[in-house]
Every structure is written in C-alpha cells, then in structure tokens.
C-alpha cells in the first residue's frame, strides 16, 4: 500500500481525523516496518497524529492513549530521531497503568470491534431481501380482486359436491324408511314412486291415530306417535322437490305438522322455491299461511315476491308483486335487496314507459325505506337503464349514468364488475355525441389496464357485450374506422402470447351494428363534388383515373363551396366493379363501401354453408369466424340500410325483392317502413320517375301486414303505423300526385279519427301523487307524472309530418285542401291536449280507472 494514499490536500488541516484512530494507527504501524515509508510522509503522519492525540488527551483525561514511543516500539532509528527533532508532545500514561496486551494486539482488537459495529449498523439499516416468489405472492394479495372466476368455479364445485352427498344420504334414509314401514309384498301396488308410498302409509297411520284419539276424546297432543323422524321428513321433502312434486312435498310438511314436529325452515323454503320457479302465487300464499307462525325469513320473502312476479303476464305491470313488496315494508320486515333488484328488472323488461318510470321510483324509494346503499348488481342495472331513457327525446342519459358510476366506485368504494363496465360504456356510447363516445372508449381502456394483477392479467376481460357497446358508439357518430378495428379484434380472437385476449364470438347482433356503421359512414370522396377538367392548370389538385377508352383524364377536386383543394396528392379512382377490397384504411367512396359490405355478407353466407371456408386476399383467415351469425330479419334490414344510404334506388329495389327470398327469411313491419322512408327521400331526377312504382309495391304488402296485426290480436306499434303513412304521403307529394296524397290522408283520418285520442290511459293506484308516509306506492319519485310518456296514443298526424304536402298545395294554390290539412293537424293537436288533461285529472284505482262502471285494466303496450 503506497504512502501516497494517505496524503491529503493542503486546504484540509486535519484530513485524517475523519478516519477511526485505531484503524489509522494500525495502518501506520504496519507501514512503519516497510521500506516504502519515506521520511516526509512519516513526518506528515506524526504531525497529524500528534495533534489528534493531544485532542484525545484533553477530551479523555481518565484513559489517555499510549505514547508514540510505545506505539512505534521497534521502529527504525530514523523515525525516533525525527520524533525528537520535531519536538512533538507525547502524553504519558497515568502512573501505575499497565497495558495488558501488546500494542499491536490492542490495535487489532479495536479494529475488529470497529468492524463488528459497522456490520451491526448495516444490518439495522439495510433493506430486507425478498425472493421472486415472495414478491409475487405479496403483489397477488395486494392486486387481487374480491372474487376471481377461478374462485367462483371452485365454490360452485364445492356446492355441487355437497348437493350430491346430500342426495345420496336422502336416498339411504328413504330406503331405510321403506324397509321399516312398507310391506315387502305390497311394493308398487298403490304408488309406483317410493316416497309417495311412504307418505301414503304414514298418512294412513296418522289418520288411524286421530280416529282413535277422537273416539277416546283425548287431545291429539297428548301422545305423540313419532312415525317419521325430522330427518326422514326432510329427506322426503327434498326428494319430492327434486322430482317437482309439490303436492307430495306439502303432504310431508302436513305430516310433520300433524305429528307435532318442528317444521324445519329449509323444508318450507325448498317447497317455496318450487312454487316461485313455477310462478304459482296462490300456492305460495297458502304455504306461508299454513306452515309459518313467525315472520318469513329474507329468503322466503324473496321467493314469495318472486312467485307473484312470475305469475303475472309480461303485457301487464306486476301490481300484485308491488303490493306484496310494500306490504312487507308496512310490517317492518322489508324484502332483501335482491328482491328489489328482481322487481326493478321486471319493470324494465316491460315494454312500457310507465314501467321504466316506476322502476326508477322504486329504486329511490328503496334507498329511503329499506336499503340505503345498493350493491354492485343493482347499480349496474340502473346504469344500464340509462341507455334506454323513459322519454324518446334522448337516445341515452350519460350524465345520470356517470353520476351513478361515480357514486358506486368513488363514494361507496364498490368494486365494479365486467357487467358494470359494459353498462357504463353502453350508456355513454348510445348518447351519439363524440364527447361521450370517446368517454366510452376511455372507460374500455380503463377496464383493461387499471386492474391488472401481479402477473399482468386483467380480471375485467371484454366480452361480446363490451364490443357491442363500443360498436354502438362507433356507428352513432359514423366512425367506420373504429367499427372495422373492433371487428378485426373479434376476428383475430385469442393469441397464444396474449394473456388478456378474449374469445368473443361474432353473432347476429355484432354484424347488425357493423352494417349500421357502414350505413352511417360518410365517405371522404364524393363524385358529385368533383369536376372533370381536361388539361388542369398546374398547382391544382388532380385525381388520375382510367376510363374504358384508356384515356387519362385530369380531374380537379372542388369542395362544396367551390374552392379548389390545394393538394398534390394523387389518388386512383376505381371503377365500380365487384373485385374484393378490404384495405387497412376505411373505404374512400360509396362504391368501396358497397363492395366491403357485400364482401362481409358473402363471407357470412359462406360460413353458414357446409363448404370449407377458404382464405382470401382481403380476409386472410381460414376459420369460420361468422358461423354463429344467424340470418334474421333485423340483420338483413341492417344490410339493406347500407344500400339505402350509398346505392341507387334501383339497386336497393332489386336487392329488397330478392334478398329475403334467397335467404328464406320473412320480412317484418319495420322492413317495409324503412323501405318506404327510402322512397320518401328519393333524389331529384331519374329516381323520382320510378319511385312511385316501388312505393306502390311496398304499400300493397304493408296493408297486408297491418291488417294481419289487427286480425291476430297483436296490432303493430302506433308509431310504426304513423311512419308508414307519413312516408307514403311524402312519396306522393314529391312526385306531384297531390290528389292521391289527399285521398290517402282522408282514409287515414277515417281509420284513426282524432276523437279516439281523447280517452286517457288507465291510471294505477301507485300513480297517485298524494303525499303519504306509508302507502302501497313509492314515497319518493324520480320522475313526475308529466314526464312519463303515454304508450297508448293511437296513430296521428302532425303538421311536421304533412309539411311537404302543405307546401305543394300552396304552390298549386288549392286553398280548400290547405284548409283541410290545417284543420286535421289542429284536430289531432286538440285531442292530444284533451287526453293529457284527462290523464292528469283521472283518479287512480286498484288496477285501472273506472270508466262507465267498468274497470279498465292497463295493457302494455297498447294500440287501438
């Protein structure tokens, strides 16, 4: 070790004081015997060590360090002479003090103690070391979700094992009871089923016992007979319930009651489950009245309400279930939250604005009287309901949905589920505005990235509902690029290296949204906005095209306002051919949109067939990805909408009359209405010359569908009837067939006169607005009576519907016909006002309003 390492800069007067004294002295002592120590270096060390020892002697008077001569015992004469010449002070040890160890040993002991102190200090402040397995287990606990799919499947497996063991035990008990009670020579003579033979034998024994007691005039409670044990009765009840024999199960319960046995709660609940599943409300009422002496448990209350809920028709509001629910609230034993969730779900499933409004009222009512904090399932249900608002003025209510989402995840700190994310994404996507559609895609990214576990897996993996919700948003803003990307992700499926991939099959609903996205898409290139110019001037934006004559033509693209676009980019204009084209970028023209739609539809037909699917240049995959797409009426109607928007009327007409026959699917009322509306939007020129023939063909078929609806008791929705008639009147008006249009309007007014609108809709008891702290209706409402639309209004006409006809009559100067159109619109408007006033003034009844002494029950939905 060279002595140069101990030299310090001159700016530090005592540089070695930072080192421990024992370590420095031991180092210099070992270097002293080395020939590499120079005189100058030793002098510098003497000066620094002398100052240090003087400081230590002053600070520690009790135990001074040994002198320099003692430390350097045996050193060279040069070092001793240098010490004497410098005259450095040395502190002598106290009198009588004696060193027990050699100085070198003492120094080594001190250095060893110093090393031990350093090691102990490092152990105190050094971080703990974890293995990779320990860190992974730690992060798995921290980042785990409350319930993973694997845990749910494990719980289901355990429950299934318990159920099988219970069934085996019941079988053994019934076999033992059969051996004890039945005659071996009388098996199968009266009842072919074992449990029924046992019940019949026990019933016979109990009847004899009661007859003897009545003969002796003794109380039936004095001598319990004990024919069956409670365990045997429970086994008989479970076996009867498993076989779906409710009568035998009630006989077993009755035997326990007659024999003075305690009725097990599980046995009554099992029978009640059977009645709830079948929707036998009357039997559920009798069961609880005959075999319960105390208030029903939460599960029994839930099953009781469920029985009433399933017993009512889907065309009527569940009034009996609502009355029972409020009856339990009046007894201070409210039903559990899952019961309110089931009732609210049933109300939302009714095709009625009144049912949806009452579902929101019941939700707010529940939070005041029963359960202040909803669970994740109920929050999901209400967020999902925001995507289908009560009023038709809005396509969605994203603000309300986001408020509920924030309340659930932030305020209540409830862990969301995949269904919750799907609900909030759908509510934002259906709004139709870019702001909330982008919010839907942001929530989808949050769903995948914000809740990953220690291994990088996301517990909220997207499913078909997630993709359908995103497609809803993409099609409503006409974003075909996103719709194509979502379809590509679904076609791609799960890769082996993708831990977060999802296998979401492509079905009819997915392709319906994709076709709607093509229909709503606005291609950037429009041939109507181009001007063909030969020898275009330099600097103008040109598009090179190829004509059949192989003549190159320069076309200057001009925007709608007449300003030429200054771009040097040249694009190849393709002719309208049938070559497959499915590029990475969205289609740039209407012809490309039609080609892509045809390609997708042909691939659906190909995958539906038995032939093997072959890969093509445009769709390079050989699997039958579209094999689960069912060819339904709404799928074909959505496919037709692409031609209504991007193809000519003649092409749409030809496809309309051939598509359904080739596929073998029946047309619906909406199919004819959309075709008539396409005729009503015919462009000027050749389309209007041939649109009347197509409209007449459609109208002949529509009249058959409309009459068939009234004939089978299922009339078509009144709003669809309005749209069909309005479209036909518009077609006749734009083609200058004003006489036919007026004749059509008069026939409509004769079939649906304004006077039929005046009668108000029935009013239920729970629609009462009287303030009451306890009643069989919601105490808190989220929707007022004026905000609930009336679903029973017959078809009518407004001035907006007849505006085109009115303008044409003004051009033709026909004041008499103009007056008739004005009078008819005012008559419908006045009848609507009278209907509204009568609905507000009507008094609610038990299940309808009293009209002429007869009770009118409200049906859902209703058309005259």
From TrEMBL:
Swiss-Prot/TrEMBL keywords: Repeat
Keyword Repeat attributed: yes
InterPro entries: PPR/CCM1_RNA-binding, TPR-like_helical_dom_sf
Record Gene3D superfamilies: Tetratricopeptide repeat domain
PANTHER family, per database record: PENTATRICOPEPTIDE REPEAT-CONTAINING PROTEIN, TETRATRICOPEPTIDE REPEAT (TPR)-LIKE SUPERFAMILY PROTEIN-RELATED
Name of this protein: Pentatricopeptide repeat-containing protein
Organism this protein belongs to: Cyclocybe aegerita (Black poplar mushroom)
């Amino acid at each position: 070790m060279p002595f140069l390492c101990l030299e310090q800069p001159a700016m530090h007067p005592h540089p070695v004081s930072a080192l421990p004294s024992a370590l420095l002295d031991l180092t210099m002592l070992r270097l002293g015997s080395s020939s590499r120590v120079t005189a100058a270096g030793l002098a510098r060390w003497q000066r620094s060590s002398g100052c240090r020892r003087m400081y230590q002697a002053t600070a520690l008077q009790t135990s001074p360090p040994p002198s320099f001569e003692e430390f350097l015992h045996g050193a060279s004469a040069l070092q001793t002479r240098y010490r004497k010449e410098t005259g450095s002070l040395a502190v002598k040890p106290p009198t009588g003090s004696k060193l027990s160890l050699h100085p070198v040993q003492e120094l080594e002991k001190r250095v060893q103690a110093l090393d031990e102190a350093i090691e102990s200090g490092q152990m105190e402040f050094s971080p703990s070391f974890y293995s990779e397995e320990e860190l992974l287990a730690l992060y798995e606990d921290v980042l785990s979700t409350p319930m993973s799919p694997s845990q749910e499947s494990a719980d289901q497996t355990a429950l299934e094992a318990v159920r099988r063991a219970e069934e085996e035990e019941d079988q053994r008990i019934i076999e033992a009871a059969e051996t004890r009670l039945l005659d071996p020579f009388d098996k199968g003579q009266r009842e072919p089923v074992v449990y029924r033979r046992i019940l019949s034998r026990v019933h016979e024994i109990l009847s004899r016992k009661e007859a003897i007691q009545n003969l002796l005039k003794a109380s039936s409670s004095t001598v319990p007979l004990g024919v069956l044990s409670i365990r045997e009765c429970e086994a008989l009840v479970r076996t009867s319930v498993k076989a779906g024999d409710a009568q035998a199960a009630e006989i077993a319960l009755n035997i326990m009651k007659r024999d003075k046995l305690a009725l097990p709660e599980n046995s009554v609940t099992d029978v009640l489950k059977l009645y709830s599943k079948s929707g036998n409300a009357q039997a559920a009422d009798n069961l609880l009245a005959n075999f319960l002496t105390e208030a029903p448990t939460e599960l029994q209350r839930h099953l009781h309400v469920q029985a009433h809920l399933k017993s009512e028709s889907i065309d009527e509001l569940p009034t009996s279930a609502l009355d029972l629910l409020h009856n339990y609230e009046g007894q201070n034993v409210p039903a559990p939250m899952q019961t309110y969730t089931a009732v609210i779900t049933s109300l939302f499933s009714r095709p009625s604005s009144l049912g949806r409004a009452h579902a929101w009222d019941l939700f707010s009512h529940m939070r005041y009287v029963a359960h202040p904090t909803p669970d994740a399932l109920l929050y999901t249900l209400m967020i999902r309901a925001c995507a289908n608002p009560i009023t038709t003025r809005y396509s969605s209510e994203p603000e309300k949905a986001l408020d509920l989402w924030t309340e659930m995840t932030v305020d209540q700190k409830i862990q969301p589920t995949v269904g919750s994310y799907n609900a909030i994404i759908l509510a934002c996507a259906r709004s139709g505005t870019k702001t909330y559609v982008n919010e839907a895609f942001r929530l989808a990214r949050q769903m995948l990235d914000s809740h990953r576990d220690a291994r990088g897996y996301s517990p909220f993996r997207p499913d078909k509902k997630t993709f359908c919700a995103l497609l809803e948003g993409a099609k409503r803003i006409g974003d075909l690029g996103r719709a194509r990307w979502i379809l590509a992700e679904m076609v791609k499926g799960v890769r082996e290296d993708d831990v977060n991939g999802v296998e979401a099959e492509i079905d009819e609903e997915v392709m319906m949204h994709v076709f709607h996205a093509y229909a709503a898409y606005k291609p950037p290139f429009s041939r109507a906005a181009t001007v063909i110019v030969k020898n275009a001037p330099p600097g103008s934006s040109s598009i090179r095209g190829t004509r059949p004559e192989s003549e190159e033509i320069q076309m200057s693209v001009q925007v709608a306002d007449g300003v030429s676009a200054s771009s040097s980019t040249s694009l190849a204009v393709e002719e309208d051919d049938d070559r497959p084209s499915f590029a990475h970028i969205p289609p740039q023209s209407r012809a490309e949109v039609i080609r892509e739609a045809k390609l997708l539809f042909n691939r659906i037909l190909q995958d539906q067939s038995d032939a093997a699917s072959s890969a093509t240049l445009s769709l390079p995959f050989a699997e039958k990805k579209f094999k689960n797409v069912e060819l339904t009426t709404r799928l074909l109607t959505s496919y037709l909408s692409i031609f209504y928007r991007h193809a000519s009327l003649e092409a749409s007409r030809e496809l309309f009359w051939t598509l359904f026959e080739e596929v073998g699917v029946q047309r619906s009322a909406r199919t004819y209405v959309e075709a008539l509306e396409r005729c009503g939007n015919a462009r000027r020129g050749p389309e209007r010359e041939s649109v009347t023939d197509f409209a007449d063909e459609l109208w002949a078929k529509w009249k058959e569908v409309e009459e068939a609806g009234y004939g089978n008791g299922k009339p078509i929705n009144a709003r669809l009837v309005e749209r069909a008639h309005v479209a036909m009147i518009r077609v006749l008006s734009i083609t200058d067939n004003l006489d036919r249009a007026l004749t059509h309007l008069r026939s409509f007014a004769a079939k649906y006169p304004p006077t039929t609108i005046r009668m108000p809709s029935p009013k239920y008891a729970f629609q009462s607005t009287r303030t009451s702290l306890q009643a069989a209706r919601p105490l808190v409402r989220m929707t007022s009576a004026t905000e609930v639309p009336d679903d029973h209004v017959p078809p009518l006409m407004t001035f907006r519907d007849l505006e085109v006809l009115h303008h044409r009559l003004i051009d033709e100067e026909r004041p008499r016909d103009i007056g008739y159109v004005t009078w008819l619109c005012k008559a419908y408007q006045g009848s609507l006002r009278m209907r509204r006033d009568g609905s507000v003034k009507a008094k609610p009844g038990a299940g309808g309003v009293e009209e002429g002494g007869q009770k009118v029950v409200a049906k859902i939905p209703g058309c005259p």
